[in-house]
């Protein structure tokens, strides 16, 4: 745990240092650009740093004893900046006003427009500026990763880490597209395919990018063997699925004080999750029509959310998702047993498994 705490502190410092180097670049263009750095700093100051921790655990799993940890700290920090970029874009796509209990990026820009009495639509300005901020963070994550890879002592390991990062970037973008596709195309798909399609979204939008890819990037950077990389992939994918299944439960039943998002937000956004697919399988035609008609209605108030929560709970879907979480966690932990990974690293991965899958409502 001491190593994890130190890593989180180092990542925070590295991100802060990196942003400081970008201040004079944007300031030289125009003082009007300072909100881009200020809002970036705000979005990168919090969060659980799970991706950074998995990246570091992957590095440890290779048995590295390198005295210089700067390459892995930079890679872990780059993943956190990439994650921030994804959240900025995700909130725009989902029309989500809050993130971690505060205003989302596009709402910050919208508020700035309104307070300044500028011309035109504050909402349009907020969305456009938010898209650009997300793009900027994507570019910065790439720059910071390159700084870390340049400091790596093993050029081949650095190239493999870059390849894994590039694959992750493609997969999560594909997963995000599949997510918005399912929200709109589910009605035209065969009923018996909806669960598998929802699972496919989980794999590519979240599981790989939240857990598996950070593990493999860190391990690759440390020069891990093919057997070690295979073991981490076998561990990371089911754990990533369990992580997102827990997130899906929180998105419907979570306490806003814990999640930083309004309770039932996934219902307003119309997320066609595994939870929803399972709920539809377990209810009669009337409740199913209620769920289908109201899911995705941004005007859902608390009373209607309570009704939909009851429909989902009564369907047995919550228990089935909990069982899927347990099964995926068990599969992930089995992958660790007998793997060519040191016991210290395995213990760290067991601890992270508990943290990402036991989050309370």
TrEMBL record:
<dbReference type="GO" id="GO:0008299">
    <property type="term" value="P:isoprenoid biosynthetic process"/>
</dbReference>
<dbReference type="InterPro" id="IPR000092">
    <property type="entry name" value="Polyprenyl_synt"/>
</dbReference>
<keyword id="KW-0479">Metal-binding</keyword>
<keyword id="KW-0808">Transferase</keyword>
<comment type="similarity">
    <text>Belongs to the FPP/GGPP synthase family.</text>
</comment>
<keyword id="KW-0460">Magnesium</keyword>
<dbReference type="InterPro" id="IPR008949">
    <property type="entry name" value="Isoprenoid_synthase_dom_sf"/>
</dbReference>
<dbReference type="GO" id="GO:0004659">
    <property type="term" value="F:prenyltransferase activity"/>
</dbReference>
<dbReference type="InterPro" id="IPR033749">
    <property type="entry name" value="Polyprenyl_synt_CS"/>
</dbReference>
<dbReference type="GO" id="GO:0046872">
    <property type="term" value="F:metal ion binding"/>
</dbReference>
<protein>
    <submittedName>
        <fullName>Polyprenyl synthetase family protein</fullName>
    </submittedName>
</protein>
<dbReference type="Pfam" id="PF00348">
    <property type="entry name" value="polyprenyl_synt"/>
</dbReference>
């Amino acid at each position: 745990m001491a190593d994890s705490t130190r890593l989180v502190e180092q990542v925070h410092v590295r991100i802060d240092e990196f942003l400081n180097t970008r201040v004079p670049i944007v300031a030289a263009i125009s003082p009007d650009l300072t909100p881009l750095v200020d809002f970036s700093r705000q979005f990168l100051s919090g969060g659980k740093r799970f991706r950074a921790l998995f990246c570091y655990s992957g590095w440890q799993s290779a048995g590295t004893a390198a005295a210089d940890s700067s390459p892995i700290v930079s890679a872990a920090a780059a993943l956190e900046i990439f994650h921030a970029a994804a959240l900025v874009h995700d909130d725009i796509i989902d029309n989500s006003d809050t993130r971690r209990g505060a205003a989302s990026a596009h709402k910050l820009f919208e508020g700035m427009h309104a307070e300044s009495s500028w011309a035109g639509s504050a909402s349009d300005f907020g969305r456009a500026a938010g898209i650009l901020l997300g793009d900027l963070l994507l570019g910065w994550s790439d720059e910071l990763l390159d700084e870390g890879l340049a400091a790596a002592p093993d050029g081949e390991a650095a190239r493999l880490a870059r390849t894994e990062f590039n694959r992750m970037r493609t997969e999560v973008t594909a997963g995000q597209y599949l997510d918005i596709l399912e929200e709109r195309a589910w009605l035209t798909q065969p009923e018996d395919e909806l669960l598998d399609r929802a699972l496919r979204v989980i794999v590519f939008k979240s599981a790989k990018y939240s857990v598996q890819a950070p593990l493999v990037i860190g391990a690759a950077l440390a020069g891990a063997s093919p057997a070690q990389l295979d073991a981490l992939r076998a561990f990371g994918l089911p754990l990533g699925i369990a992580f997102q299944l827990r997130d899906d439960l929180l998105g419907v039943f979570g306490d806003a004080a814990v999640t930083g998002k309004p309770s039932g937000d996934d219902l307003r956004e119309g997320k066609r999750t595994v939870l929803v697919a399972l709920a539809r399988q377990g209810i009669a035609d009337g409740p199913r029509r209620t769920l289908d008609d109201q899911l995705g209605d941004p005007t859902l108030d608390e009373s209607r959310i309570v009704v939909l929560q009851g429909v989902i709970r009564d369907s047995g879907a919550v228990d089935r998702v909990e069982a899927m979480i347990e099964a995926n966690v068990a599969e992930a932990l089995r992958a660790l047993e007998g793997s060519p990974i040191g016991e210290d690293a395995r213990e760290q991965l067991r601890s992270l498994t508990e943290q990402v899958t036991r989050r309370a409502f």
